[in-house]
């Protein structure tokens, strides 16, 4: 029985790895698959199978985000926060994190909490920071729970 499980796992990993080929992802992305756009963006960001290019990653994350992929939005927001491939813009990062948080992405909610706590791109607001940390926590992000508790103890 365990042999069958290992064979199925191996076949699944080969299928997943094959789907991560840049050319295949590009074709799928061009065909409207927003998950493929996001994954292709990750390849460009990390330089895996393609030459590293933050600007290309940003373009692909933007396409994914515009197509309704909340993970694309949070990754694009991080690029704006750090100024990688785009001009650093905390306000734009906050907008993207909000869009992704509204899509129930816990990392976006936590990142938005950080921006509110520090006053980056938004007016500093501890109540809003706490609200977003709480939402991140509710969505299963332990760091959000920790930050929520930390602000509660201020």
Which terms summarize this structure?
single chain; mainly alpha; 0% strand; disordered N terminus
How would you describe this protein?
- With 154 residues, the protein is an all-alpha fold.
- It is 75% helix and 0% strand.
- Helix 8 (126-138) packs antiparallel against helix 9.
Summarize the structure.
The protein is built from 9 helices and no strands.
What's the structural blueprint in terms of helices and strands?
Blueprint: H1 2-19, H2 22-30, H3 34-46, H4 54-66, H5 70-82, H6 90-102, H7 106-118, H8 126-138, H9 142-152
Helix pairs in contact: 2-3, 3-4, 4-5, 5-6, 6-7, 7-8, 8-9
Portion in helices? over 70%
Give average pLDDT, whole number. Answer: 89
What share of the residues does DSSP label as strand, in percent? Answer: under 5%
Query: How can the largest sheet be summarized?
Result: none
Alpha carbon gap, first and last residue = 54 Å
Shape: elongated
Structural class: mainly alpha
Q: Radius of gyration in whole Å, from Cα?
A: 18 Å
How many E strands? 0
- Give the count of helical stretches: 9
Order of helices and strands: HHHHHHHHH
Low-confidence blocks of residues: 1-18
């Amino acid at each position: 029985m365990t042999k069958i499980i290992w064979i199925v796992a191996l076949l699944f990993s080969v299928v997943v790895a094959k789907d991560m080929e840049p050319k295949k992802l590009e074709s799928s992305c061009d065909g409207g698959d927003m998950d493929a756009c996001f994954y292709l963006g990750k390849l460009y960001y990390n330089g895996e199978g393609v030459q590293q290019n933050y600007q290309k990653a940003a373009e692909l994350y933007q396409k994914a985000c515009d197509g309704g992929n909340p993970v694309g939005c949070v990754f694009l927001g991080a690029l704006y926060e750090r100024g990688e491939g785009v001009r650093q813009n905390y306000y734009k990062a906050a907008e993207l994190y909000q869009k992704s948080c509204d899509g129930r992405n816990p990392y976006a909610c936590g990142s938005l909490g950080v921006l509110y706590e520090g006053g980056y791109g938004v007016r500093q607001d501890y109540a809003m920071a706490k609200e977003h940390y709480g939402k991140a926590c509710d969505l299963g992000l332990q760091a959000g729970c920790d930050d929520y508790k930390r602000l509660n103890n201020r």
